Amino acid sequence: MRIIDADGHVAEGASLAVEAMQRWPDFIAPRSDGRALVIEGRNYPESEGPGAGCPREHGLSRAPGIDYTSPEGVLGDADRDHIDTMVLYPSLGLCAPTLEDPEFATGFARLYNQWIADYCRSSGGRLRGIAVTPIEHGAVAIDVMREAKELGLVATHVPPALKTRNLDHPDLDPFYAAAVELDMPLGIHGAPGMHLPKVGVDRFTNYIQVHCVSFPFDQMTAMTALISGGVFDRHPDLRVAFLEAGVGWVPFFIDRLHEHFEKRGDWIEGGWRRDPQEYLRAGNIWTTCEPEEPILPGVIDVLGDDFIMFASDYPHWDGEWPHSTEHLRNRPDIGDESRAKIGGLNAQRFYALN
After folding, report:
1. Alpha carbons 203 and 50: distance in angstroms, whole number
2. Cα angle at 71 between 82 and 211, to 5 degrees?
3. Which residues neighbour 96 within 8 Å (Cβ) at sequence distance 6 or greater?
4. Which of 30, 53, 110, 330 could pair with 192 in a Cys bridge, judged by C-beta atoms 3.0 to 4.6 Å apart?
């Protein structure tokens, strides 16, 4: 069974930050205590106050022997965890959609995309990078995404919402059309403390409470916008993955959306035209799972196994490395066909991997 990690992360380390500070000294600098970067006057991560993120020194796994400091170290860690291919989402790079100065935001996104492409190049295709874009700044985001496709990046990161717009805003239709044209899937990924729009987490200042709430609320917000706002009707070949919230919430929320579509769907002018489950069956909706989730067999029973992908969240503190794949490989309550799809075949289709 080929195992593809559909949502791992790269720990960018100093090299990306140093290059950015050299290029844009007026926009990015280290905080005096070393606990954050100060970008456009904001702390990344912001580890205090409403919606607090993880303090920088606690974000990464401390499992004995883990080595996320180089591509070679990551590949060695993948071997220990029986992972064949890792799709790497950003860590610091998740800040890209939040940058306010258009020229800086565009430059930073291009720098990140080139950096992650170079990082993955020596891996023989085992490490695959995810692009970032200045999505708040209009048409230039399409140019950056097109360049990222040429660099060999396999998807583009999209935040769960924008500063003043949801993901069904008509201004984003050209971006979605370009993603379809480029065969570039989109990965929706939030991150507390990174100045992405907050959904509910502003009620908490303790990072652990924020972490409990942030990822599922983010994904429900994004899914509501994309389905009920008619995005998949306007762009029927668009592929979107809802990431880092597990899969247990999906049957509940698809059913909730179904009820609202059935009883009051016509209240949304220009919105959804089909039952929410049809977008899932059509290949618009994908998600990742943590393979130890007790509800996984129930999700397969209710919604099928064609949209679920394995994710490790390597090398973050809440990941299970070097045991991320154990449940997937060994649990007896899912069949071998489902195991193979979740383990790698679905991610191979979503990311269009060889």
Report:
1. 6
2. 70
3. 90, 105, 108, 109, 112, 132, 133, 134, 157
4. 53
pLDDT of amino acid 136 = 98
Answer yes or no: are the C-beta atoms of 56 and 45 closer than 8 Å: yes
More confident residue, 15 or 253: 253
Tell me the C-alpha distance between 81 and 291, whole Å. 13
- The two tokens of residue 19 are 């290059």
**Dist CA 274 CA 201 (whole Å):** 31
Q: 94: pLDDT confidence band, cut at 50, 70 and 90?
A: very high
Which sign does the torsion angle of CA 283, 123, 337, 254 carry?
negative
- Provide the token pair at 76: 């060695």
d(CA 31, CA 200) in angstroms, rounded, equals 28
Q: Are strands 155-158 and 4-9 parallel, antiparallel or unpaired?
A: unpaired
Per 3-state DSSP, the chain is made up of helix, strand and coil in percentages (nearest 5) of: 45, 15, 40
Q: Residues 192-236: pLDDT tens digits?
A: 999 999 999 999 999 999 999 999 999 999 999 999 999 999 999
Cα angle at 136 between 131 and 142, to 5 degrees? 50
Distance CA 79, CA 264 (A): 50
For 37, the token pair is: 């970067």
Helical segments of 24-101, H only: 71-80
- Predicted local confidence at residue 270, as pLDDT: 84
Whether the bond between 174 and the residue before it is cis, its omega within 30 degrees of 0, is no
Taking CA atoms, 132 is separated from 70, 92, 109, 112, 321, in Å, by 20, 11, 6, 7, 26
Asked if 317 and 60 count as a contact pair (C-beta separation under 8 A), the reply is: yes
